[in-house]
């Protein structure tokens, strides 16, 4: 009981001492808060971006991609977020790979880029594009069983489009053209099931573009992946309007046995195909995460520098406080305060500054995480969907514990200096 009273008494006295110079104390706390906010935000960004990349690649639904030769990481990025300069393969590759005994499921995908119809509400007149994916629904949804249509009271999420083979054998221009919109496309274009959406496409080999109108057959629920920003249509329709008959962009594969050895054996079986490369998404993910780890070291250095600067400010504040209270400290020692009492008092003051700054910094970082994410997405092309700043309880706990630990060591020198004063010399110096 006496121990708790002792702690409470010293903590109360330390608080009163800090409140003597409110402005100076506030500046020191603000310095620590800003440093901690920077550290927490950077840690949250690293964690969130790491998770976003992992989630985006996993949500592709493929374990292996068969595609035209080129940079595999660029190709994977195009699959994640769309882009121009895509390479194409003959769809006979799909037929050949489908015979592989190690394949559990397989799907062909055609990816193209179209210009969006401009609306007076949201577009500023600048050119914008949208990713178009030509797919075969049964095999594609086998790869991505989580895809579903929006549901809600009074809301019709629709269905998958009618494919070319499901209508009567009419001329291509008479085929009913339907598409399914990803969540973000439907939100941005303000479309619902039954509406019409226009896409402007420049076919391969053509000089001028063509505008095609489609009926929205369905709108997918939000997935937090690249699919949210995609317009899906039948594979044969995409091949036709882009003037790339019998061509595909990628063959997505899931293997019966998913391991590095199985992927390597699959690659050895099919690498001999002309102009073909095999890309294991686990390898792509590992490479991207290694790049993040390198950036993480640089981010950590920035955070450390910010914290060191803040701690120097705290030490300076405490030393100035000791200098102003030299006479008071001398009187305390003259009437019986021990060195440990003075040491403990000054140490509490330093710890309180750091703890208050740490709590304030965590609150600022957590409360402003949405603003930070908004700014990052508008300043940098991140190439992933979903939340990219994730401030978890682990980050908060580690930051708070680190702040207390730093405060513990930061208070050692000022506390030692104050406790080492001789009573008479301190009293005279304070006169």
> What average pLDDT do the residues reach?
78
Number of domains: 2
Distance between the termini: 38 Å
Strands side by side in the biggest sheet: 3-4-8-5-7-6
Overall geometric form:
elongated
Q: What percentage of the residues does DSSP assign to strands (E)?
A: 15-25%
- Assembly annotation: single chain
Helix content, binned percent: 40-55%
In words, what does this structure look like?
There is one protein chain. The protein is α+β, with helices and mostly antiparallel strands and 431 residues long. The protein has two domains: 2-56 and 288-430, no CATH class; 64-257, no CATH class. Helix content is 53%, strand content 15%. The chain is built from 15 helices and eleven strands. A hairpin with an 8-residue loop joins β6 and β7 (210-219).
What are the salient characteristics of this protein?
two-stranded antiparallel sheet, 2 domains, single chain, alpha+beta, 15% strand, six-stranded mixed β-barrel, 15 helices, 431 residues, elongated
Short description:
The chain is α+β, with helices and mostly antiparallel strands.
Layout of SSEs?
Layout: H1 2-19, H2 22-58, E1 64-68, H3 72-81, E2 89-90, H4 92-97, E3 103-116, E4 129-135, H5 137-143, E5 178-181, H6 183-189, E6 196-201, E7 210-219, E8 230-234, H7 235-241, E9 247-248, E10 250-255, H8 260-270, E11 276-280, H9 281-324, H10 326-334, H11 339-367, H12 369-379, H13 393-410, H14 412-419, H15 423-430
Parallel strand pairs: 4-8, 5-7
Antiparallel strand pairs: 1-10, 1-11, 2-9, 3-4, 3-6, 3-10, 5-8, 6-7
Helix pairs in contact: 1-11, 2-9, 2-11, 2-13, 9-11, 10-15, 11-13, 11-14
